[in-house]
Amino acid sequence: MACARFISLKTSGMVRAFSTLMSPPSKAVFYDNHGPPDTVTKIIELPPVEIKANDVCVKMLASPINPSDINRIEGVYPVRPPLPAVGGYEGVGEVHSVGEAVQGLSPGDLVMASPPSPGAWQTHVVRDKSFWHKFDRRTPVEYAATVTINPLTALRMVEDFVDLKSGDAIVQNGATSMVGQCVIQLAKLRGIHTINIIRDRSGSDEAKEKLTKLGADQVYTESQLNVKNVKSLLDNVPEPALGLNCVGGNAASLVLKFLRQGGTMVTYGGMSKKPITVSTSSFIFKELSLKGFWLQKWISSGNTEASREMVDYLLGLIREGKLKYDIELTPFSEFHAALDKALGKHGSQPKQVIKF
Amino acid sequence: MACARFISLKTSGMVRAFSTLMSPPSKAVFYDNHGPPDTVTKIIELPPVEIKANDVCVKMLASPINPSDINRIEGVYPVRPPLPAVGGYEGVGEVHSVGEAVQGLSPGDLVMASPPSPGAWQTHVVRDKSFWHKFDRRTPVEYAATVTINPLTALRMVEDFVDLKSGDAIVQNGATSMVGQCVIQLAKLRGIHTINIIRDRSGSDEAKEKLTKLGADQVYTESQLNVKNVKSLLDNVPEPALGLNCVGGNAASLVLKFLRQGGTMVTYGGMSKKPITVSTSSFIFKELSLKGFWLQKWISSGNTEASREMVDYLLGLIREGKLKYDIELTPFSEFHAALDKALGKHGSQPKQVIKF
After folding, report:
1. What would the pLDDT profile of B87-106 be if each residue is shown by its tens digit?
2. Contact state of A79 with B287 under an 8 Å Cβ cutoff
3. CA-nearest residue of chain A to B78?
4. How far does B290 lie from chain A, in Å, by closest CA?
């Protein structure tokens, strides 16, 4: 195999000569300090690593730049890898070589990192075979590379907090985000209406049109909701029982205003960096519940296998054309251009996915 | 019976002469406009009312002035009786006379309004027999008059939101309130620690001492918690899984700071009239849940019988000396002096209870 190398290693002060299966060197997005991602990251070449008996070496094919990747590099994400680190958290690749004890995975198989874990932004990754989840090769690779975090977050939030039935409704802010787009489509598949809140910005009409095509029942900019009673806008859509918040500040207050008596708002992001403010009567008399969702914690609470089944379900929807979202593929050599887009330097952009 | 009257009524244009059981006239705290309770309320005499076959006429003995009574008169409480109205919401009395079909209740029995309902501040109340809950006459009347709202709220909040075990902890603000005093004692009975937050004010040392005597593990004024990490104060008390908030604003933020990973804060009041502000990361990474509790809604959701059983349990604790709280009895003739105290015109005061 191309990445098997015969080398000599100096171990415990003793020179030993033996044959060891090694990975190719790996080009990686590396950082050894927290700070602005566009300044602290650089592309370096990491030396080959040993492929042990149960390891699988994967040549990475694609990996997205998610907001949480940026927060980890900035150092503001509460759980992050120790420094120095390689960026990225989810991605897919092709099996390059396998350790001698590995069964069920062979060179050429397509696999994804499962659960999502640090170090996806590099050309070659060596991990235990249990870390890799083989997926149907008919799946577009850019979707497989992005399915384990945002679409899965959308699915869990639609399913886990409120027992929604066909005809019920969800209200969400940040509706143009990848999670937002998935929520619209996953809800639609179950006959659940969505009320969608987006930022005021140039291009908001196009954004509304796009979300409507995905199945959104209603789309409002924040300023359109500056009315006395937002519920008067609902028309035939019922008051939503579930609200999803990834923005905070005023956009979270708007979600709360739409919620019906006894409704639940789930916070999964804070793009505005503003806190959530809630009146006392929202809790006592409107009986609202506020919770949070963190996919990483959910998966690590014994749900790795469950998450793989759900990912396969989502990939099935993707192959059937029932779940789609905006993606822009960028070659690894132009990583920093993609990073600038993900950092919002050029306004609203599709999800940036690195192609190795 | 003293309140049986023979009168003639003109009904449906037809003059009929017959005997009807009537209540005595009732002196009542009456208001026909919302506004400041000390200006819009007046004591008037209401005419006798008919005691129908299933009715019970009760001579009221005692009724408290609760914050929600004040808010109903002010018109800021979302659910309130139509105007004109008689104030008050809970209380006890002695059966004065019963309708011909009433069994199980006799003159002289002690009963309480159950569920709590509008119109307790008057000398005589006529309601269907199902409305009255007979209680053990060995109970001090001022406790029976105050048990159905605040102590029951404390009990439900300690029991219903988090599965607490002996050795666990609760953090609460507004700890000197009647609910607060009950939470301390009900928790203590189950081996649950309490961390208590009170306002900065003159007399805070006495308040601390009093709460400690009731069983509080820790008592802090808000300013004492102006430290970097409030959890460093916990010593041997574990991080609390349940927080109770009846204040809002900074006092609610302090409760949130004490809560452990995955903890729940229940809001049941908003004495500061300030909203609750929560960071995004409190929801996502600290996995906090925020909910509300409203006793009236809980009882009306099919829990009238359950609430009576719990009230009996609480009255038992009271008779055994295991549950006590500050009460000041005031004769009905001095209602407006008691109201001024309840309105906070003379600083912090014990719960004001009207004695009829």
Report:
1. 999 999 999 999 999 999 99
2. no
3. A285
4. 5
